[in-house]
Design a protein that fits this description.
This protein is of the alpha/beta class. It is built from eight helices and ten strands.
Amino acid sequence: MQALVIVAHGSHLNPDSSTPTYDHADAIRATGAFDEVREAFWKEEPSFREALRTVEAEEVYVVPLFVSEGYFTEQVIPREMRLEDWDVSDWDSEDGVSASSATYRASDVEKTIHYCGPVGTHEVMSDVIVRRAESVTGDPEVGAGFGLAIVGHGTERNENSAKAIHYHTERIREMGRFDEVEAVFMDEEPEVDDVTEFFSARDIVVVPLFIADGFHTQEDIPEDMGLTDDFREGYPVPGEVDGHRIWYAGAVGTESLMADVVLERAAEAGAEIGDARSRIEERSAPSVAGE
């Protein structure tokens, strides 16, 4: 038997914070790839600490639904799950975006735990960002004539947060699909407030590399970009700002293809997933506007 445990931050203040986690877990559960699929949170129940005690399988794959390597993925989760002999060097990620997986025993349960790197630094996340652009425009061929802005939080406390943004920005730029691809941030330069200054393309798709929609993605960013003066009144998609059309996508983590990244993380750690990835990809294909 094999089990999948998806771990995420959650929130005491935002009831929608855990929604993407449950949605992706449900999608993976429906594929039948795992005997058990569980969710666990830092700020909600069920907690990280109790997660492994709720699983019957002896082989467990733990995938963090986090954007970057850092405090939560390197310290909090291993500690709360009581992973014996955890050492961040086992992930073999000297650049902050290359975490793989490592295998441990949990100190209080007789299980083998395959602890995977966060979804946000996996290369497939670049495809999810592109899919998010397709979804918000309703165009599976979107690219030519469009700019793409990838938004990160940015923080001096975790330099790896920005590394993940720059990593996917460069990967998508190399695809040559969009006319322009730029990284922008909430709390460091270049700032999302000035997003229109970084693009010559009239149409700009803006995708925040956040796991769930909340205060930052639904309030701060739309107001900072000038899409609305008051988030409570909503904002148009697309919206006109400084002569550009802004296609604001909201948190990338709400895109259904995110389940594919979770599966890929587990598969690379040794999980047997059969045709689960293809089933997720079919299920999450964007609809075309007008159909």
